[in-house]
Each structure stands twice: as structure tokens, then as C-alpha cells.
Amino acid sequence: MSTTTPVEVGLIGAGPWARTMHARMLAAGPETRLAAVWARRASAAREVAEPYGTVVAGTLEELFDRCEAVAFAVPPAVQAELAVRAAKAGKALLLEKPLGPDLASARAVADAVADAGVVSQMVLTKRYHPSTRDFLRRAAQLEITGARSCYLHGAFLGGEFATGWRLEQGALLDLGPHLLDLLDAAIGPITGIRGTGDPRRWVELTCEHENGAVSQASLSGSVLLPRARTRIELLGPAGELVFDTSDIDHEECWPILRAEFAAAVRSGRSGELNAARGLRLQELLDAATPR
User: For 185-218, how does the pLDDT look when each residue is reduced to its tens digit (9 = 90+)?
Assistant: First the structure.
């Protein structure tokens, strides 16, 4: 098959993230084509599919028949269940964070991906922005002693993203994967982690890294701010390196994400942001959960 042939992607989910990001990104091409949409409510799936002239699959099996890859825009518990089925059906997977609602379900997804030998990729949004990649390149050249970081917003206070699983499980499961992924990548592997607080209000993490550095991470989706705040400050004997996403245009992430997923599917080789990475982050989340 020609490498220029668009990857046929089926979308599972019809919520706000499916409407505003996944469907639009996959339909924009040229590397991918939105082949079908499936959701448990057919009327919701139709609202997502119609603007792009694609079909609504009547069943999950019909969606699988119409695509070679599956993108997920559903709550973690639903993703964990259906991703295993998609992997067993031989489909490449574009997965949201967290991989599952808990460590056992995340491990089941990663195991299914490994057993089936299918391509997988995590939607860790900020990782696909050029400024993030520049930050990680610069961080790799530094001796880092410690770090402070935060991911804060007020989306849990109301609006379409104040959904059931986010309100129930809080910022650790929703925002934690993004920040822990960046800290682990920028400073070095996290070897120890402790969490305090209430993830539904505010949680504070202390991370110990393989190179001896210590980092702090503050997470909350329940604080009123003019805009979301994601900031990492790396400090060491040579000075400070700051990464602040306030000026990032997330629209620049989607073409890179789409192109890299399509390239992985066509080559049959997953990149570093695969299901195994998702499991690694879930292990950290589990260890950090205040008990």
C-alpha cells in the first residue's frame, strides 16, 4: 500500500473532545481520513459525523470493519474496555490519557497492544508542540538539581469538560499524566513519588528522579484563573530553564500528532509515546494517589 494513502480511522466517542479535536483533526487529513464514528448514543455520534460527511457505525464491529485504526475520545473506563477489543481486532490505537481508570485496567490495555503487536500512540497534547520539543532538547543539556511545576485551571468548576469521571477522580488522573510525562522526560526517570491533598480540589506531588533531582508538581482543576496555567521551572548550577505554555497555540499540535500517528501506522512501528508510555504514567499516578 502506498505510504500516501490516508489511514482510515474510526472514532469512538461523541463528547466535547471528540467534537472539538478528534473528529476535526482526523477529517482534516491528508494523512488520515475519518472513516466512521461510533458512540453508545447514535444521535450523538451523528452530530459528530455529519459535518465531515462520514458514516455512523451501528455497532462497534461495524466501526472495526470500516477502519484500520481507532481513535478514542471516551472516559478512561470505557477506553480501557474497548481498546482491548480494538487491539484484539488488529487495529492501531490512538489513545487518550489516562490509559485507564486504574493501574490494572491500564496494564490490560498495554498487554493487549503488546500481544496483538499493533501500533499505539498516546494523545499527550503538549508533546506534539514544537516549543515543547525544544524545551526537552534544551533540558537534556542541563544538570538539574530541582524543579517546580504546576498544571492549574478551573474547568472542573463548570462547563462541558466538568464531566463525571473528572469530577469524581480529579486532577491527578486528568492533568497528572501531562505534567508527570514532561517532568519524567525533561529531568530523568521518576523513581519515587508521593502525593498529598485531595485530587478533586488540589494535589501536591513530590518526585524523586534517577539522577538525584527532586521536583514538585501542583495540580488542580478547581481554581478560578483567567486561563489554564502549565509551567515548569528547572533549576541547577548553570541557571534556570522555564517552560510556560501560556503562549502555546494548541492548533499547532494537531497536524504533528496526526502525521506522526499515520506514519507509525504505515511503518508498523510505534513511537515513544505509545501504550507502554501510558502504562508507565499510570504506574506513577497509582503510586502518587493519596491514600
Answer: 999 999 999 999 998 999 999 999 999 999 999 9
Is residue 231 within 8 A of residue 243, CB to CB? The reply is yes
Instruction: Enumerate the β-bridge partners of residue 219.
Output: 151, 203
Kindly report whether the global pTM for this prediction surpasses the value 0.70.
yes
Question: Whole-angstrom Cα distance, residue 115 to residue 103?
Answer: 18
Structural domains present in the chain: 7-125+251-273 (3.40.50.720), 130-247 (3.30.360.10)
Buried b (16+ CB within 10 A) or exposed e, 66-85: bbbbbbbbbbbebbbebbbe
In angstroms, rounded to a whole number, what is the distance separating the alpha carbons of residues 240 and 207? Answer: 19
* Model pLDDT, residue 265: 98
Are 225 and 154 in contact, with CB atoms under 8 Å apart?
yes
Sheet with 202-209, strands from edge to edge, namely 190-198, 202-209, 214-220, 146-152, 229-236, 239-244
DSSP 199: T
- The pLDDT of residue 183: 98
Amino acid in the structure at residue 284: L
